[in-house]
Amino acid sequence: MLEPKLVHHASNTISRGQRPGDVRRVNRATALELLRERPQGRAELARAMGLSKPALGGLITDLTLEGLVLEHPPTAIARGRHPAPLQVNAKRFSVLGVHLASYGLEVGLYDALGVQQDVLYAPSHVGQGATRVLAQVIETSRALMARAKKLKIGQVIALTIATPGPLDSARGVVLGPPKFPDLKGMNLKLKLEQALGLPVKLERDVNAAATGHLRQTKAGSFVYILMTGPGIGASVIINRAVYRGTHGFAGEFGHVSLDPNGLACPCGNRGCLERYASSEAIEQHYKKRTRKTLPIDEIASRTRDGDPHGLAVFDAAGDAIGLAAVTLVNLFDPSQLVLASSGKNFTDLLTPSLKRQLTKRAYPYLNLGAQLEIENVTLEHPVAPGAAECVLEAIYQGEITIPKLKTEVVMG
Amino acid sequence: MLEPKLVHHASNTISRGQRPGDVRRVNRATALELLRERPQGRAELARAMGLSKPALGGLITDLTLEGLVLEHPPTAIARGRHPAPLQVNAKRFSVLGVHLASYGLEVGLYDALGVQQDVLYAPSHVGQGATRVLAQVIETSRALMARAKKLKIGQVIALTIATPGPLDSARGVVLGPPKFPDLKGMNLKLKLEQALGLPVKLERDVNAAATGHLRQTKAGSFVYILMTGPGIGASVIINRAVYRGTHGFAGEFGHVSLDPNGLACPCGNRGCLERYASSEAIEQHYKKRTRKTLPIDEIASRTRDGDPHGLAVFDAAGDAIGLAAVTLVNLFDPSQLVLASSGKNFTDLLTPSLKRQLTKRAYPYLNLGAQLEIENVTLEHPVAPGAAECVLEAIYQGEITIPKLKTEVVMG
DNA sequence: TTCTTTTGTTAACTAAGTTTACTATAACCT
DNA sequence: AGGTTATAGTAAACTTAGTTAACAAAAGAA
């Protein structure tokens, strides 16, 4: 058995001092985040941030000079002088969001606000070797970048590639997974950066999807659960940031064991949730009951039409996820559970039994399970836009630098 | 069934702007933390914090004027001018750490460095009603404060009371637990503040113990597991801070379910870890095997002498904790697992089987379980000093204000 | 037209850093 | 003994990025 030397990544907690520059960096990022949520005037933004109007004014002047923020003519709202709405310049630059899944590849082009402008899908070459897969990713990305030039949109400046874990996000190396071993050990980040000439971030598919969800919600802490074919992954969001754990492996929800003597799982454990409640497991259970091999979408659609076998298998899967979720709630105490699936969403079929288990078993003494909010994500492709959101976040936080505008303002 | 309205506490993530004052607050706290770890000179501290020497000098001048930091005559170390060692003034003030357990009460007196100066134990009055328990806590604390006056030590300025959860730490209200219902609904914080005239913090016993452990370790993220009589609680430490979850209920490790159809637990779930592996469960299992009713300490001691029944029951308990820990590792990916028990430590008897389960079942693909570090805490009373550490942290971070010195320096 | 309200800017001030230069020690080496 | 070198701490001038107070600009209301 190989024994990879695991590296600790979680913020090394260097007790460092702060300087005035840190203040500016934080305020800059905060201002951009708030403006991305909703365009607004200087005064309103200053209030939202708890800063004085002059301080915020200066910040905006900087951002405007960099071309990141645009000012529009005032619009009538209320009494008094009308605010000049500031908004993030959607065309200042653009990014790619890449979703490399075992079943296929999706590359999307997104403007600076994260709105999709173009997208390309490609059938999977997984199983044909790492070189082939890598080439496919590079080709598709280049194709999209070529098409981007014809659109009136800012230059592509960075990308995130999202793929199933485990990964070493910091170094950009793919470490697995057992079921998708082609890329194992490849430094995907480095190869892509060299081939495309752009900064690249590597991210777990679930974390990307959850990051995308952050744009849609105001909740600060939640658990995002993504069901993709054979797997069930979770992303734990704490204070609006992905919680990664020491090695970046946090959130392996699919391997919560429901039965220590249950079915063996390639992960090495037994009775893992994935074996009972993943899309593939649901398909298998349905087949066992009906002798029919149907894709999950079809099973879901029949279930909505009242198919009792469908109801039974979804109910059982919901029970299983519910049991695992009880553990999750006991350990994390999240405010919300977000359920997503790739492809047509079917998680709403899981929620009744899931909710039942939670109500019955998660701290009933305090009614915790009953009060837990459950949200179903209806997006069919949550990962690629989420990947885009990951780079955007890095860009707006100043981790990735934005190339300067040519029309630079020079002081006389 | 009562349905308490749960309040979300987890940092409300108000996207607030930063000001220069925030910089100072952070740097001040960081400097004190580093000095608490080890006395050192200005230059060294400046390097550790990444600040310039003059900046740090100013910070120290402030702290010295407040009496929080003392400067000692230089001591020979190396070549060049010798640094004047700065250290936190242990006698500037003192605090109380209170551990209210179902089996008894412990109140300790700690100096500003967290070193115990005095301690009082009292037999439990739990079961005799909330008023009685409260009176006992107040009496014992007053007694210790009276004794403190005779010691040459700073004034007692605050205290933390640690008790089993669930709690509403922010408001200071005890919400449970099922097994220790006397105080349910009482605002312990408020009552103690009124009776003792000091700021009071209420904290989960496990969180207090884990906070205490933070002083002993450099690890940034770990899970601290505390076995107390009937319960097994965990405190999740992320970036050297307790992770609380949305309502402050994170870390209910004892209620990870090992078997959805297992033994019923008062928590409402079935097959909870506590029912298999708590000290009380171990005692019961031992009794079942041997017909002897012995306290856990005695069983542990016999096990060390080779008692096969003891070996068997500890092994089984370690297996159970190991299974639950696999889930914990899958979800949190901690760097370390810290095991503690109140009373004579016996967790070393659990580690062999625990480690075995982890190695076998926690991400064997990446050898995660095998590489997870397990640490046994040998302290017999980890909670009270941990409680003291909680207040100290709050004080040094500026959340609790330190009364001014009488010998105030006044500018001419 | 004038009043009121709200936005955004200007000017002067404050907080808390940084850099550069200097002084104070102390060890080491002729 | 006295210069050299290394290190610690302080002083002065400067920089960054806030704050407050005052005011100009814009727009609806009286």
Helix content of chain A: 25-40%
Q: What Rg of chain A, in angstroms, do the CA atoms define?
A: 23 Å
Number of discrete helical segments of chain A:
13
Order of helices and strands of chain A: HHHEEEEEHEEEHEHEEEHHHHEHHEH
- Shape label of chain A: globular
Give the neighbour order of strands across the main sheet of chain A. Answer: 5-4-3-6-9
How far apart the termini of chain A lie comes to 66 Å
- Write down the overall mean pLDDT of chain A: 92
Number of strands of chain A: 14
Largest two-chain interface: A-B, 85 and 85 residues
Low-confidence stretches of chain A: 408-412
Portion of residues in beta strands of chain A equals 15-25%
For the report, how would you describe the main beta sheet of chain A? 5 strands, mixed
- Note the quaternary state here: homodimer
